[in-house]
């Protein structure tokens, strides 16, 4: 049960932040279509980076991704709106990092549970992620 709680918390964090950052990319000043395209293109380097970093284990890269994703997300809010390029860069770096964390969470959740329970536990954790995902559109209202 403890493993399910931990991995559900990871799924909730990843889903909430990933969808929040994806929607935030269109709210930044500048062309919202260009920002969304750049945000979408951040997925490719994230998956390559995740494959490279996965050689260091599962828990340490996931923890590092959560911490660095939080730092870059908070920094993007603290940057004044006049520094448009820096703000967009931090949001895109945050998207890259949280995409890596999402991939690490998917792999870790599949490895944590025994074969008999794996599908049910991963589905339950994913359900909690979807619940958190439903709150992501309200994220700009929280800031």
Structure description:
This protein has helices at 2-24, 32-41, 43-53, 59-78, 84-112, 118-133, 139-142. The chain is mainly alpha-helical and 143 residues long. It has a single domain (2-130), classed as MFS general substrate transporter like domains (Growth Hormone, Chain: A). The longest helix is centred in the C-terminal third of the chain and has 29 residues, at 84-112. The chain is globular.
Please outline what is shown here.
With 143 residues, the protein is mostly helical.
The ordered string of helix (H) and strand (E) elements is: HHHHHHH
CATH architecture: Up-down Bundle
* Quaternary: single chain
> How many DSSP-defined strands?
0
Largest sheet: none
CATH topology: Growth Hormone, Chain: A
Strand content: under 5%
Radius of gyration: 16 Å
**Treating each run of at least 4 consecutive H or I residues as one helix, how many helices?**
7
CATH class bucket: Mainly Alpha
Helix/strand class: mainly alpha
In terms of per-residue confidence, which ranges show pLDDT below 50 for 5 or more consecutive residues?
A: none
What is the CATH superfamily? MFS general substrate transporter like domains
Distance between the termini: 33 Å
> How many domain units?
1
On the 0 to 100 scale, the average pLDDT is 85
Shape: globular
Binned, the helix content reads over 70%
Keywords: Membrane, Transmembrane, Transmembrane helix
Subcellular location: Membrane
Membrane topology: Multi-pass membrane protein
GO cellular component, one term: membrane
